[in-house]
Amino acid sequence: MADRAVTTTDATAGERRRGRPKVVSDARQRDHIVETGRRLLLERGYGRTTMDEVATRARISKQTLYRFFANKSALFAAVVEEHRHSMLALPGDYDHLPIAEALKAIVRFDIGAEEDRERHALLEMAFHESVSHPEIREVILTHGVELAREDLARWLEARARREALAIDDPDTLARILMDMVFGAGRPPPRPGETADPAARRRQLGSCIHVFLYGVTPR
């Protein structure tokens, strides 16, 4: 009977242990909140999105949400920081690729039309709402554009050291390349429009070619 009692107690304790919810790490919890915030911002826009809605959609308490992000601006900054990797695939290891192919990988040359449309949607939302919410522009610049440019400048500088490239001012060159690729590039297709990925790739290829070689004959 004693042995049986011990077995039953152990089984009961095991059931309790199995029934306990798994603890989610802070990193995973934060990633979940950022992704939830991104989707809600795209659905409702910056002005209409509230922290209460983010907590509800993420199925967390407001206390948990505010433990990670003090306000909506801080959450938006985290969304923008994550978003910048969809614009420039950096940091990354491209040492095995010729420089032209490496730059194609960095600017997401082969990205699909739907993903291209989605990654531009956040910037379009920010552009339209920056008049009513001027803090958006500063967040985009500080947590998106400037960090992406720093990533690209570091990569160009490292590549220049390896290949003795004529890169005296990597920050300026990074700015020029980003202006070429994103400033005057083909806009992504709008919902309902037919995507033309070949045209997008041709334009990106031309940007990279002119950036590397200019327009004079090689």
Please give the radius of gyration in angstroms: 24 Å
> Order of SSEs, N→C?
HHHHHHHHHH
Low-pLDDT residue spans: 1-9
Mean pLDDT, nearest integer?
86
Q: How many strands? A: 0
Task: Count up the helices.
Answer: 10
* Assigned CATH architecture of the largest domain: Orthogonal Bundle
Sheet-strand content, in percent, reads: under 5%
Structural class by sheet pairing and helices: mainly alpha
What is the count of structural domains? 2
Per CATH, the class of the largest domain reads Mainly Alpha
Calculate the terminal CA-CA distance, rounded to whole Å.
91 Å
Largest sheet: none
The helix fraction, in percent, is: over 70%
Condensed summary:
The protein is mainly α and 218 residues long. 70% of the residues lie in helices and 0% in strands. The chain folds into two domains: 23-70, Orthogonal Bundle (Arc Repressor Mutant, subunit A), CATH 1.10.10; 71-218, Tetracycline Repressor, domain 2 (Orthogonal Bundle), CATH 1.10.357.
Q: What are the SSEs and their pairings?
A:
Layout (H helix, E strand, L loop, with lengths): L1 H18 L6 H19 L6 H8 L3 H7 L3 H16 L11 H8 L6 H17 L5 H29 L6 H14 L13 H17 L5
Helix pairs in contact: 2-3, 2-5, 5-8, 8-9, 9-10
Descriptors:
218 residues; mainly alpha; Arc Repressor Mutant, subunit A; Tetracycline Repressor, domain 2; 10 helices; 70% helix; disordered N terminus
Describe this structure in words.
The protein is an all-alpha fold and 218 residues long. The protein folds into 2 domains: 23-70, Homeodomain-like (Arc Repressor Mutant, subunit A), CATH 1.10.10; 71-218, Tetracycline Repressor, domain 2, CATH 1.10.357.10. Helices cover 70% and strands 0% of the residues. The chain is built from 10 helices and no strands. It has helices at residues 2-19, 26-44, 51-58, 62-68, 72-87, 99-106, 113-129, 135-163, 170-183, 197-213. The radius of gyration is 24 Å and the shape is elongated. The chain starts with a helix and ends in a 5-residue tail after the last helix. The model is unreliable at 1-9 (pLDDT under 50).
